[in-house]
Amino acid sequence: MVVACFLALFLATTIIQILQMTIWMTLESVLLLVVFLIGWILLLIQQAHARGRLEAAHLQLAAFAMRMEELTLVNERQRLARELHDTLAQDLVGLTLQLERIDQHLEKKRHERARELAQQAMSRARATLAEARTAIDHLRANALGPQDLLQALHKEIDRFRETTSIACVADIAALAQTPCALCEHVLRAITEGLTNAARHSQAQQVHICAQFQEDFLIIEISDDGRGFESAALATLQGHYGLLGLRERAHLCGGHLMIESAPGQGTVLRLHLPTQTRGGVL
Questions:
Q1: 68-77, 141-150, 217-226: which has the minimum mean pLDDT?
Q2: Which of 68, 174, 199, 260 has the fewest CB atoms within 10 Å of its CB?
Q3: Which CATH number fits domain 145-281: 3.30.1130.10, 3.10.20.30, 3.40.50.2300, 3.30.565.10?
């Protein structure tokens, strides 16, 4: 605006001089022209600096977008790894356990019982195939509600009892109040706990307890099996289920505790917050 005013004054002075047939410009006109030229040069310099800052901002934005894409890819790979373990891998473990039980009954010539387990294994194989197709089609995007959670857990517990012949006491009525955002994580956590008990614990009984304490949902899965040294967890290889549980707890803002000792059984205790600082999950 200042430059424009000086330019206007300069033009007005020039026009007056032309009208007065004045050949030589006055000192005032020269000063106005110099001020105009200086202002114009400063404006060009400012525009050049602005373009430089804009290009730098574009480069930073491109680098940030690339970094976000890399993080998104890593998170998606971790999510898919958890889902593959918590669905297909666990179902295949269950089928393997059922086939082992069938083999034991056949050795003892318990053909009727072996036939029942074989039919259950076939039914489970079909369900696993259907679940795999659903996972591929929808990338496990379906929402799980509290009532669906309880139904799914009761099915898993019944299947666990039938397949392993291990007694399982479940006190999970409180899960009817589970926030929807936690339902999928709760289902996978309890399923993983049962799978570990079936594969490693050699337990006679498993106990599942769920309760709300203040702003936390606490899920405890304990068994009376052989246990292990808790310090050995850091060196165990291939235990992707426990790694997935830790990742799920971290995603929810909670944490996983594992207590065990040789001959003392194992306790998995999952603390999940039911609220965040911004409100309910």
A1: 68-77
A2: 68
A3: 3.30.565.10
